Amino acid sequence: MAKVVYVDQEECTSCGVCIDELPEVFEFDDNDLSRVHNPNGASEEKIQEVMDMCPVECIHWKE
Ligand code: SF4
């Protein structure tokens, strides 16, 4: 089964890095926390790159 990206919002600090890097996948919700609006908006490689940039490492794969 394909991996699906998600954000653990309990940990998100609203820094905006993932949204700046990959607006095709991430967006701010009404509480200014990041959420995934399109898990298929980028390649796994690109999503992994952004995952590694999150300062609190709260972007994960659900397998
Ligand atoms: S990079 Fe991480 S902490 Fe920053 S907005 Fe995205 S999910 Fe939240």
Beta-strand portion reads 15-25%
- Spatial extent as radius of gyration: 10 Å
| Percent in helix | 10-25%
Give the distance, in angstroms, between the N- and C-terminal Cα atoms.
Answer: 7 Å
The chain-level structural class is: alpha+beta
Main CATH class: Alpha Beta
In CATH, the topology is named: Alpha-Beta Plaits
The overall pLDDT average reads 96
Ligand inventory: iron/sulfur cluster
* Total tally of structural domains: 1
List low-pLDDT spans.
Answer: none
Q: Summarize the main sheet.
A: 2 strands, antiparallel
SSE sequence, one letter per element: EHEEHE
Shape: globular
Strands ordered across the widest β-sheet: 1-4
Tell me the CATH architecture: 2-Layer Sandwich
Count of separate DSSP helical elements: 2
Using DSSP, what is the number of strands? Answer: 4
Characterise this structure.
The structure is a single chain. By secondary structure, the chain is of the alpha+beta class. It has a single domain, classed as Alpha-Beta Plaits (2-Layer Sandwich), CATH 3.30.70. It contains 2 helices and 4 strands; from the N terminus they run E-H-E-E-H-E. The strands form 2 sheets. It has a two-stranded antiparallel ribbon with strand order 1-4. A hairpin with a 5-residue loop joins strand 2 and strand 3. Bound molecules: iron/sulfur cluster (SF4). The site of iron/sulfur cluster has 14 residues, from helix 1.
Brief synopsis:
With about 60 residues, the protein is an alpha+beta fold.
Which labels suit this protein?
Alpha-Beta Plaits, two-stranded antiparallel sheet, about 60 residues, two-stranded antiparallel ribbon, globular, alpha+beta, 4 strands, binds iron/sulfur cluster, 2 helices
